[in-house]
Amino acid sequence: MKKGSIVELELSGLAAEGKAFGKLEGKVVFVPFGHPGDVVKVRLLKVKSAYCEGSITEWVQRSADRVDPPCAHFGHCGGCKWQHVSYERQADAKHRQVIDQLERIGGFEIPEPRPILAAASPWAYRNKLDFSFSTGRWLTAEQIQSGVEFPKEGACGFHVPGRFDKVLEIEECHLMNAEVNRIRNLIKTKARDRGWSFYHPYNHVGHLRNLVFRSNRKGEFLIWVIVGPDAQATLGDFLSSISEEISEEHRIVYSINPKKNDALHDLVVEPYRGEPFITETLGKVSYRISPQSFFQTNPDQAERMYQTVLELANLSGEERVYDLYCGTGSIALFLAGKAKFVLGIEYVQEAVNDAFQNAQLNGIEHVHFLAGDMKNLLNENTISEYGMPDVVVVDPPRAGMHEDVVQRLLTMKAKTLIYVSCNPATQARDLALLTPIYHLDVVQPIDMFPHTHHVENIVRLTLRP
Ligand SMILES: C[S@@+](CC[C@H](N)C(=O)[O-])C[C@H]1O[C@@H](n2cnc3c(N)ncnc32)[C@H](O)[C@@H]1O
Questions:
Q1: How would you class 424 by CB atoms within 10 Å of its CB: exposed for 0-12, middle for 13-18, buried for 19 or more?
Q2: Among protein residues, the one whose CA lies closest to atom 4 of ligand 1
Q3: What pLDDT does 135 receive?
Q4: Which end of the chain is more exposed for a tag (fewer CB within 10 A), N or C?
């Protein structure tokens, strides 16, 4: 088994990073786009003492359980890498991944995990998509071999993983309401008709740079058109021509990006048609979503996640709650109706501003938010000012919690600790550190991102007697 050699093996399972695996000479071999039951030829790209990684060069036999990917861009686009796996099997693999990591990394025994909360609609579940325009069109091997000439202006779609300068043209994406495809393709056609160019990633010239869609469950869109300075003179005409063909309930905003990078968070957003935000309601709480604000991208599953946190918090109305890593305060506001007081802490000042604004929008006064690094802000002063919490909810980024934060939680001894995580491996590591005083009580995996390998997990810890 040498790097570069081709081996044949039968795949037997799905692994944590979304790859399939099989065993050869006692070693696990991981490959993308495989399915349990496939017999494949694999070129070995990495050969380590404990495992190998490779890519499939040929299918000797395809598993009868594979499903046909509905998307024409499957295999080329960086998203939705599990379309060839049935949704039931995806959900099952995610469930097993959570339990496996809690057992292997955390050293827990999980006798009765709750069944995973799988998505009721595994397609068109997203409320946000970002498209890029680039002169650097990525051509697939089949497109190159076809000999077809592709439009010279470049591509509008998603960046190819690891390539800031190459964009895969997207005709149809199934992750959001189909109207997104019509509007995106309309904007491309209008640009072509007017001789507008796509952004050149090296020369930094061009009219169209990015296009961001946000939507709510009422079917309203916020369409954000980002252009380069070259577009300034004719932007009004361009926006007018597209707005004529977009339903009036949808709002349009724009930004001119003079920078050499594509970061969007620091751009000035100008309204073109309607208010420069949309509103989403989860449970009884309304959240204002501006072009740059963070909001969970699967609203149906976010609502189920927040409902689960509320159920597990078991509030009577008398409790003081801390929502740590609170983002725009979504969980804090969702719990506020059943709590005496909620304090949210979050690193990003803009998110905290949104949290205050959302509190005001809902007339919720018994919440407060602080901006800063958790390991510095979660200290004795904060606790003495806002009171010792009865319930703590943490929802940290993928890296999990800083050890100082875990230590602080150990001294705070809140009765109930709810840990929401998008990375069960770091969650298991942090939970293991909390076991001296906490008992792992409930494990509730939830699938926020069908067709990807990502899985979210909610755990309740209760203080040991
Ligand atoms: C997974 S998100 C939480 C999302 C939020 N609970 C929601 O449902 O909308 C994690 C949040 O932690 C914040 N964060 C990351 N590192 C932090 C730190 N060191 N201190 C405080 N907040 C941090 C991020 O800015 C982000 O908003």
A1: buried
A2: 327
A3: 96
A4: C
pLDDT in tens, 139-179: 988 888 888 888 778 999 999 988 999 999 999 999 999 99
Q: Is the pTM of this model over 0.70?
A: yes
Q: How far is the CA of 325 from the centre of ligand 1 (A)?
A: 4
- Cβ 224 under 6 angstroms from ligand 1: no
Please tell me which residue in 77, 173, 326, 422 is annotated as part of the active site.
422
Kindly state if the Cβ of 377 falls inside 6 Å of ligand 1: no
**How far apart are alpha carbons 126 and 205 in whole angstroms?**
31
Structural contact between residues 68 and 110, judged by C-beta atoms closer than 8 angstroms: no
Is 326 in the active site?
Answer: no
- C-alpha Rg value of the chain to the nearest Å: 24
Contact 369, 351 (CB under 8 A): no
Mean pLDDT of the chain: 96
Between the CA of 328 and the centroid of ligand 1 the distance, in Å, is: 9
Instruction: Say what percent of the chain tops pLDDT 70.
Output: 100
Among 314, 348, 316, 309, CA closest to 332: 309
The CA 299 to ligand 1 mean position distance, Å, reads 18
Q: 45 pLDDT exceeds 90?
A: yes
**Angle at which helices 235-243 and 179-194 cross, to 10°:** 140
Place of tokens 């495992």: 51
Q: What is the mean pLDDT of residues 110-129?
A: 94
Mutational pocket test of ligand 1: of 347, 377, 456, the residue with most ligand atoms within 8 Å of the beta carbon: 347
Q: Is the CB of 107 under 6 A from ligand 1?
A: no
Q: What does each C-alpha distance from 203 to 135, 197, 238 come to in angstroms? A: 10, 12, 23
Question: Torsion-angle region of residue 390: left (phi > 0), alpha (psi -120 to 50) or beta?
Answer: alpha
Work out which ligand 1 atom sits closest to the CA atom of 328.
Answer: 9
Structural domains present in the chain = 6-66 (2.40.50.140), 90-121+298-463 (3.40.50.150), 128-278 (2.40.50.1070)
Quote the distance between the C-alpha of residue 369 and its chain's center. Answer: 24
Cα gap 245→190, rounded to integer Å: 11
> What confidence tier does 242 reach under pLDDT thresholds 50, 70, 90?
very high
Could you tell me the pLDDT band of residue 400, with boundaries at 50, 70 and 90?
Answer: very high
pLDDT grade, residue 457 (50/70/90)?
very high
What letter does residue 137 receive in the DSSP assignment?
A: B
Strand, coil or helix: 220: coil
Determine if ligand 1 sits within 6 Å of the CB of residue 346. yes
**How many Å apart are CA 205 and CA 378, to the nearest integer?**
46
What percent of the chain has pLDDT above 90?
A: 93
